[in-house]
Write a structure and sequence with these properties.
The radius of gyration is 16 Å and the shape is globular. It has 2 domains: 101 residues, no CATH class; 44 residues, no CATH class. By secondary structure, the protein is mostly helical.
Length: 147
Amino acid sequence: MSLHTPDLTKFPPRSPRVRLGGYVILPRMLDKGRATLAGKNGEYHYACPLDQRFLEFAGIDPEALKKELTKSDTEVLAWINANAKHKRTAPEIIAWSNWQENRAPDNPEGREYLNGIHKAVAPKREDIATWFDVLDADDFASFGGKA
């Protein structure tokens, strides 16, 4: 692995909001995959349910993608664009990414789960409403931040 391999035992992966090629989730997934290959993924899991949202939208096999993770983000994105089963237009990617960024629990079990994490990591914050909000707060708190 290169010098750019994140050590997720020391700091979190990129926020799910960070975009690459217009896609949210993708940079975070790349960080987790690279850290997994290097044995430095800590509590983070490559191809987790959040990652699956991107993988399914693009039509990418996670194991095939994992073989590309020694390359730069730009090179990986080019590989994704060439190998995606679902060729998405820029407006489709923007719409999907915006939807993911604003996605919140749509059932009582999901809401209870999100609220539990919210209460544990940032009980005084009133701005946490989406899955990305709670992930960012959890990443911050997990590495010593006071939310």
